[in-house]
């Protein structure tokens, strides 16, 4: 039988790969310039939007704090939250996602700003291109700014009953802990009712070079709904731009993050 | 129009092919690999135009490539689902089949494991260099390497035997 090194096997895997002949140098430089111009215009717009967000938070936060949300971390809930409303999103009352997230974070966490979603990576060849990116109205990346330092939470959710239907995110998360390094402190729990919970804490440098410590809780419900929240001490790797220095620890500890993730608000 | 330095231009025109090969091994798809490389090169240009000086363009690009790849797979809607149980692998009849079998086997690895194997064995990076590129500990690189090789061996069935222990394996990842 033939002996192969891993390198030789990889060389075999590359056979048949046709390297493009055209030089894309000018195209890459032009796209970089375009992105720079776009960033500058977004930065100007963000300055104005930031002021509007602060004003909006001042009005909305008391309403959220007095509502059904609970700021205290609690034990894992044993029942699934109610299913998503099946009405079109247009009929839902307007809600400011940042104020909802702020209401669920511990008091004094800081200023919450939702940043623009990144577009999805291109669809595989042969599949229709996605022009609309349906996602939960609360899903997204939220910066938490306090004393000039920035942490973040990244919320991703999937609800098969939502309209418009969101893109599937996998579903079965059992066995994930077997794939993570021991340093990630991964814990898998199966709660009554078929609810699966995965908790991990990645050390600084594992999520991204400068992201700091990142804790993640993912909850999978038997009816197909899925919610995952990353609590990041730093913001390195989130976007191409820098949001400044990060926190020493994630904005939520594991117990707080679990309660945050299990809150039924994500599927309302 | 921005006037980019000649070194950057030369890098863009000459290193794309090398990055594309690594990207192809990680993505398993030529179109996705081209997208990944293009995103990487744009990030390199933006970084080089920024305030930070890049002393080693190649190393910076390699780091950007693997981190962009892993980050793209972290998004849940793009998350790959490694197979818990591997189907029986048929022995490839020829080189083309072997290439396909290796590509499929690589896709069975978790994205970070795949990146580690590509860096270690295709790009011939040391454990230390791979750890620095990925921003993880050397222990993580070693454990990911071991797990990745185990999955590769399982996926390729009788074609490859057990991993040969010893210094040769550490240097070249020899499989029998």
UniProtKB/TrEMBL annotation, chain A:
Q: Give the top-rank taxon of the lineage listed in the UniProt record for this protein.
A: Bacteria
Assigned keywords, A-Z = Membrane, Transmembrane, Transmembrane helix
User: Low complexity bias: where?
Assistant: 74-94
Location of the region described as Disordered in the Swiss-Prot/TrEMBL record: 71-96
Transmembrane ranges, per UniProt, are 42-61
Q: What name does the UniProt record give this protein?
A: Uncharacterized protein
Q: Which organism is it from?
A: Streptacidiphilus cavernicola
From TrEMBL, chain B:
* Swiss-Prot/TrEMBL keywords: DNA-binding, Sigma factor, Transcription, Transcription regulation
Please state every residue range assigned to the domain named RNA polymerase sigma factor 70 region 4 type. Answer: 101-149
Name the Pfam families on file: Sigma70_r2, Sigma70_r4_2
The superkingdom of the source organism is: Bacteria
- Residues in domain RNA polymerase sigma-70 region? 16-77
Q: PANTHER family, from UniProt?
A: ECF RNA POLYMERASE SIGMA FACTOR SIGM, RNA POLYMERASE ECF-TYPE SIGMA FACTO
Family named by the database record: Belongs to the sigma-70 factor family. ECF subfamily.
- This protein is called SigE family RNA polymerase sigma factor
Give the organism the record lists.
Streptacidiphilus cavernicola
């Amino acid at each position: 039988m033939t002996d192969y090194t891993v390198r030789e096997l990889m060389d075999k895997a590359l056979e048949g790969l046709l390297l493009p002949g055209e030089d894309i140098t000018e195209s890459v430089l032009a796209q970089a310039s375009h992105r720079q111009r776009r960033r500058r215009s977004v930065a100007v717009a963000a300055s104005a939007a930031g002021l509007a967000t602060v004003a909006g938070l001042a009005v909305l936060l008391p309403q959220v704090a007095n509502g059904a949300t609970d700021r205290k971390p609690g034990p894992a809930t044993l029942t699934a939250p109610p299913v998503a409303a099946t009405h079109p999103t247009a009929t839902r009352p307007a809600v400011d996602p940042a104020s909802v997230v702020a209401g669920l974070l511990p008091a004094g966490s800081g200023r919450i700003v939702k940043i623009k979603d990144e577009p999805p990576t291109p669809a595989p060849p042969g599949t229709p291109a996605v022009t609309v990116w349906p996602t939960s109205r609360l899903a997204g990346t939220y910066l938490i700014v306090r004393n000039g330092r920035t942490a973040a939470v990244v919320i991703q959710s999937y609800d098969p009953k939502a309209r418009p239907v969101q893109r599937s995110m996998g579903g079965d998360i059992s066995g994930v802990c077997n794939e993570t390094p021991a340093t990630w402190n991964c814990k898998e729990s199966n709660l009554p009712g078929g609810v699966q919970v995965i908790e991990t804490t990645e050390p600084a440098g594992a999520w991204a070079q400068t992201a700091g410590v990142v804790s993640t809780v993912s909850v999978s419900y038997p009816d197909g709904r899925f919610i995952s929240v990353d609590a990041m001490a730093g913001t390195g790797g989130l976007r191409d731009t820098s949001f400044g220095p990060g926190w020493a620890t994630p904005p939520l500890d594991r117990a707080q993050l679990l309660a945050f993730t299990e809150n039924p608000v994500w599927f309302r | 129009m921005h006037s980019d330095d000649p070194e950057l231009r030369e890098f863009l025109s000459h290193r794309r092919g090398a990055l594309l090969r690594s990207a192809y091994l990680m993505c398993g798809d030529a179109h996705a690999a081209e997208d990944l490389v293009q995103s990487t090169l744009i990030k390199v240009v933006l970084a080089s135009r920024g305030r930070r000086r890049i002393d080693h363009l190649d190393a910076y690009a390699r780091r950007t490539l693997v981190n962009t790849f892993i980050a793209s797979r972290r998004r849940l809607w793009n998350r790959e689902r490694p197979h818990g149980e591997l189907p029986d692998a048929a022995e490839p009849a020829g080189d083309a089949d072997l290439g396909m079998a290796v590509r499929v086997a690589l896709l069975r690895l978790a994205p970070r494991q795949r990146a580690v194997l590509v860096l270690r064995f295709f790009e011939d990076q040391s454990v230390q260099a791979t750890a620095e590129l990925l921003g993880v500990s050397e222990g993580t690189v070693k454990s990911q390497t071991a797990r990745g090789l185990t999955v590769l061996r399982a996926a390729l069935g009788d074609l490859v035997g057990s991993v040969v222990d010893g210094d040769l394996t550490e240097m070249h990842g020899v499989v029998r």
